[in-house]
Specification:
This protein is α/β, with parallel strands linked by helices and 335 residues long. Helices cover 44% and strands 17% of the residues. The chain contains 14 helices and 12 strands. The structure holds ligand TLP.
Amino acid sequence: MIDLRSDTVTQPTEAMRKRMAAAAVGDDVFQDDPTVNKLEALMAEMSGKANALFVPSGTMSNLVGLLAHCQRGEEYIVGQGYHTYLYEAGGAPVLGSIVPQPVEIEPDGTLDLTKVESVIKKDDYHFARTKLLCLENTHNGKVISLDYMQKAYDFAKSKGLSVHLDGARAFNATVALGCELKDLTQYADSVSICLSKGLGAPVGSVLCGDKDTIKWARRWRKMVGGGMRQAGVLAAAGIYALENHVERLARDHAKAKVLAERLAEIPQLEVKPELVQTNMVFIRSDKAVAAHLADYLLQKGIRIIPGETMRWVLHLDIKQEHVDYISDQVKAFFN
Ligand code: TLP
């Protein structure tokens, strides 16, 4: 099956499974799993932060990150369509009693800082206290520039706010920008990075930040049931991914571009190859046609999520020859 629904669907490679099987483990709640400790040290080093914390998912990493910055009744400003607002089942307000203040996202995936400024609450007991600006990079496959990151960070600091970066796909951003992770993460107080997306690990995310932030996040992780025991088998997959699967993300980006170019030749679909920056292709089509297309492709061994706007995601398990096969099958459907 060629699965385009997300880059979360990747299968661990043979070499990764070997590293997992051979991992030295301990009880990570006691902080004595050597492989988890190694992964956390590696991620802290790569992100230029003092500490890091291994957690089961990006959702939990964002949650404990937000809660490390905001106390009950405090507010975080966030993009209307960012994962930390829209796709985490309302975890931050429900579990953490913190208040999201969504702001419309600009076409390039950033937040307009004038709009952000306009929703910062003044110090008045009628209002929630604004504490945090939450960004996302990449957002819907779009890379947010270092220039914007710096501006947003400086702006946040001038307003006394912290910055959390949902960097679920931060490595897609750094590979596209041609920079190191720390060049990007220097503009955030905390960053959540997923190992289980384009990097191809089966499970896991890492929250990076200063000592205090990670100390709080560790406490929240325990509270929400994310304290794992012999988690070194999972951390080993993450270390393997960091060592072997970062640079190769460029290949996913190239495949996405080629796929977008091929699909753009089909008049019934609206695709803009020039907007493809990383591993995601967005395709607009008639909703009913998309549903038929999804059924047709499934019979041909290709899985997509149908819709008026579809996101097709390229990853480790989709080879160049699959790109040819996918575009041939889509063309065959429309012919
Ligand atoms: N996103 C998933 C879905 O939930 C939409 C996907 O298939 O893309 N931040 C961002 C920007 C994400 O895209 C995701 C996953 C997460 C955080 C959460 O990661 P997990 O799935 O590990 O909780």
